[in-house]
Amino acid sequence: xxxxxxxxxxxxxxxxxxxxxxxxxxxxxxxxxxxxxxxxxxxxxxxxxxxxxxxxxxxxxxxxxxxxxxxxxxxxxxxxxxxxxxxxxxxxxxxxxxxxxxxxxxxxxxxxxxxxxxxxxxxxxxxxxxxxxxxxxxxxxxxxxxxxxxxxxxxxxxxxxxxxxxxxxxxxxxxxxxxxxxxxxxxxxxxxxxxxxxxxxxxxxxxxxx
Length: 210
Description:
Blueprint: H1 9-32, E1 37-40, E2 47-54, E3 58-64, E4 67-69, E5 72-76, E6 83-86, E7 88-92, H2 101-110, E8 118-126, E9 137-147, E10 150-162, E11 167-176, E12 186-187, E13 192-206
Antiparallel strand pairs: 1-5, 2-3, 2-13, 4-7, 5-6, 6-8, 7-8, 8-9, 9-10, 10-11, 11-13, 12-13
C-alpha cells in the first residue's frame, strides 16, 4: 500500500500565488522588451543641404550646426505599429552657403529669406519603431515642410543607423520650386539658369535609439 503525502491547503495557495506572480513578471518583462515610445535629442553636429543643378553644372548649399531643434518624440499609435511623432528642426535660410556668393544670394532671394527667414521640418509619423540592433534600418515617414510661407506634407524614406557616439537619421526628398510656389533662381543676368527640381537632404545625429 502506497503512502499518501498530505499537502496543507495553505501551502498549495502559496505555491499558486508564487507561480502567478512569476508568470505576471515574465509577461511584463516580455512587454518591456519592445519600446512604445522614443525621445530623440538632435545633436548640434547635424546638417542640412539643398542640392540642385543648372544648365552648366550641379551645386550644393550646406548648413551644419546652425539650426534649432525641438526633441523628436514618438508614441506608438493605437494600431500598435505606426508611431505618432512630434518635434521639428528649423534652419535660417541665410545660413545656407552655396560656395558661390552670387548663387547664394540668388537662392536666399528665391526662398524669400527676408520675408520667411526659416525653413522648418515638422516630423509627423513613422511607419514603425526603428530597430536598434546596430545595423542600417530603412523606415518610411511623413513630415511637413514649412518654406517660403508654404506648409506642405511629404513622405520620406529614412536610413537609421548606429554611430560611435549615438545614432543617425538620414533623409532626403526631391522637390520642385513650384511645390512651394517659387521660381528657380537665375545667375549672371540669366545666362546660367537653375533647374526647377532640387533635393533637400538632412543628417540628424541623435543621442539614443529610443
